[in-house]
Design a protein that fits this description.
Number of strands: 14
Distance between the termini: 21 Å
CATH class of the largest domain: Mainly Beta
Radius of gyration: 40 Å
Strand content: 15-25%
Number of helices: 6
Shape: elongated
Number of domains: 2
CATH architecture of the largest domain: Sandwich
Length: 461
């Protein structure tokens, strides 16, 4: 449903353009527009704001009024079709043309009868030996005059018929157009009824979740993967979510997104990662799992990576494949993700953690970065394997496992996560990543949770 996509949009926007929050510190709606090339979490949905109950009720009212109006128009149109009613001007011309044609035909018939009578009189006069030459001349002229009037009447009838045919065709076209309009209104009504059903569904859903959909710590993250991806190639990451709450979660979704940056200044010197604000490219992000074996692209509609249900104390994972175009000018990339869950009882929650990782893009026209060129901290390690943490490592080939505890999980190769309260985990990434993820996490909560709650209060709910 659209209302769920709006929430997903807010989450995805927060976690797929994370660098902007370092300087902006604003809500989700303030994120800058991405480049033309877009994947998951990068589409322009500035109009997708979390609505109020009053706005959703008004949307239902508006949609209902549209449906009622279209039904009324269709009923009136059907009556006009049955009664063969058309535009008044078209009908008036048809009536006038028909009357003129009828009059012309009557005049022609009268003229023909006059000719017949005149010809009969001429014959009688001609055959009568007693007829004078004057009588014969008068009878002949009478026939000539009658024929002339008949020809004039015939010409007038032809003109009247042409007018009538045009008027009749126009009226027929008008009838056909009425039928076409009836069909068009039917399609519009079908769309309007779908919009009404969607508006009612959105309102019902929003009322059902109440104020339950807010940030909480039910989910704990782990994101591991390569620290380098060659231009024109792909890298596969593992995103694990652990249910550290005291209940089963029925439907868990993550919203991964990635961005590519030019990590060098105009002199070819490494930039601090806090200075990276505008992505230069967006890599393709796809996901798969043990239940969804084929790689599934994350589209500009903010499709989620589906984890399904996660039982209490269990962990589920998906694979994320990031593909970088061969012609990219970027030499640095970031992959982040937030998550949400939905329960059958109508409750839902937004993760108060956002996990993120950096990776180098090698083989670009800017050259492959060397260790001395990469703006990383001394703690970075080339190993993609997870580092020790407070959480039990999640087996890579398992979608649901037990034994994973809560808390922050980090990994070398640029992986890090943090809760939105700003308490950073130890990380093998650069110094910028904890700040980046913390800022993105704060914006995530502000963009969905706080905005939702403030709008709910504003609506008087």
């Amino acid at each position: 449903m659209k209302i769920r996509r709006i929430l997903a949009t807010a989450v995805a926007a927060a976690v797929t353009t994370p660098v902007v929050f370092l300087s902006a510190g604003t809500a989700v709606a303030d994120t800058p527009k991405p480049s033309q090339k877009q994947t998951a979490g990068t589409a322009d949905h500035e109009d997708d704001e979390v609505p109020t109950i009053a706005e959703l009720e008004e949307a239902v009212k508006t949609a209902q009024a549209k449906v009622d109006d279209l039904k009324d128009k269709r009923a009136k149109l059907l009556k006009d079709i049955d009664e063969k009613k058309v535009d008044a001007a078209v009908q008036a011309e048809y009536d006038a043309a028909k009357q003129a044609y009828d009059d012309a035909k009557a005049a022609t018939a009268t003229a023909v009868q006059t000719v017949t009578a005149a010809e009969a009189e001429l014959k009688t006069v001609t055959e009568d030996p007693a007829s004078t030459e004057q009588q014969k001349s008068d009878a002949t002229k009478a026939v000539e005059d009658a024929v002339k009037k008949r020809d004039e009447a015939t010409a007038a009838e032809k003109t009247a018929k042409e007018r009538f045919d045009a008027a009749d065709e126009a009226r027929t076209d008008a009838h056909v157009e009425l039928t076409r309009e009836y069909t068009r209104l039917g399609k519009q009504l079908e769309t309007a009824e779908e919009e009404l059903a969607q508006a009612k569904e959105d309102l019902e859903f929003w009322e059902s979740i109440g104020e339950e959909c807010k940030e909480d710590s039910s989910l704990s993250f782990s994101l591991t993967g390569p620290d380098k991806i060659a231009a024109g190639g792909s890298g596969v990451f593992t995103l694990s979510l652990s249910n550290v709450s005291d209940r089963d979660l029925d439907d868990v979704q993550a919203f991964p997104g990635a961005a590519l940056f030019d990590g060098l200044d105009e002199n070819g010197k490494p930039l601090d990662r806090e200075e990276l604000h505008e992505p230069v490219d967006r890599p393709t992000v796809e996901w798969s799992s043990k239940d969804v074996l084929e790689w599934t692209p994350l589209t500009d509609e903010f499709d989620a990576a589906e984890f399904g249900g996660i039982d209490k104390g269990h962990t589920s994972e998906v694979k994320l494949r990031v593909t970088v175009d061969g012609d990219t000018s970027a030499n640095l990339g970031a992959l982040n993700s937030g998550a949400m869950y939905w329960n059958e009882d109508g409750s839902c929650g937004i993760s108060d953690e956002v996990v993120g990782t950096w990776f180098d893009v090698t083989g670009t026209d800017k050259g492959e970065p060397t260790p001395s060129e990469k703006p990383t901290s001394e703690t970075e390690s080339p190993s993609p394997e997870p580092s020790p943490s407070t959480a039990t490592p999640t087996p890579a080939a398992t979608s649901t496992t037990t034994g994973t505890t809560g808390g922050n999980t980090t990994a070398q190769g640029g992986s890090s996560n943090t809760s939105v309260n700003g308490e950073l985990a130890e990380t093998g990434s650069s110094d910028a990543m904890p700040k980046l993820v913390a800022a993105a996490g704060a914006a995530l909560v502000l963009g969905v949770g706080a905005l939702f709650l403030s709008r709910r209060r504003k609506a008087g709910a």
